[in-house]
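User: Here's a protein and a ligand (L-MYO-inositol-1-phosphate). What would the complex look like?
Assistant: Let me lay out the input and then the predicted complex.
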Amino acid sequence: MSASTDPSVTELVAVAEEVARAAGRLVHDGRPETVGVAATKSSAVDVVTAMDLASEELVRRELARLRPHDAVLGEEGGSTGGTSGVTWVVDPIDGTVNYLYGLPAYAVSVAAVVGEPDPAAWTVLAGCVHAPASGETWTAARGHGAWLDGRPLRVAAAPPLDRCLVGTGFGYVAERRRAQARVLASLLPQVRDVRRIGAAAIDLCQVATGRLDLYYERGLQPWDLAAASLVVQEAGGVVRGLRGRPAGGAMTVAGAAERVAELGVLLEELDADAPDAPSGADLEAG
Ligand code: LIP
């Protein structure tokens, strides 16, 4: 983008926070006693609730008002074009299953990127992860820093791996979960302990906040990653994939650089980014 059209990252992070908070109020204050499942995606346990859809509709409406020439990539609504070169990458509820069950670990994630809205190609300029149940709001502006509720964040040097508290998560398809369990079984005796929070954006922000030393997960979508990856990076951490690749669907590893490198070696040795084995149905289909 030319300097004359470069959006101010401070303007973009203000928009991200305003929109994420508005959607957070909707999903938190408007949560019905019984949350309905509107649809399923990759499996019967990969659910979309009516509030996911309502949240993304609100985010899109607000972005159209505040940034009418920008594109949007949302988890539920896909891609809509823009002319400014900025794309908003939106997870209307990250931690949908937690939200469905009434567990408080869920967030609205809103990020502004330039370039292809793909973790392998984008530049994230600004992001906000708002967790309405706790009220906590993480923000980051490229080159300006990362904050939790306005307090600056800095990723500390991690302890030795066997003293690291490690976050992770699992997919929705049985074959993927079987492979992830194998990797977990190997890593668990080598670290302090593992936490499975159930919302990648919150996992990543907890790394930036020092509440997790490391996080890894296979299968993240662009909207899981966009805002929270900038929070980690602007707090001085690293977010990357394996085998020299950027973070993305194959694998995401986050934390202090030295420890991310050490965990990355273990994950590579375990082939933690290997394609999923065909399921029984795949094999029957031939
Ligand atoms: C979730 C991720 C989480 C992962 C879950 C799910 P969703 O996103 O945030 O880290 O382990 O399987 O993908 O589906 O709640 O938006």
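Summary: Residues 9-29 form the longest helix (21 residues).
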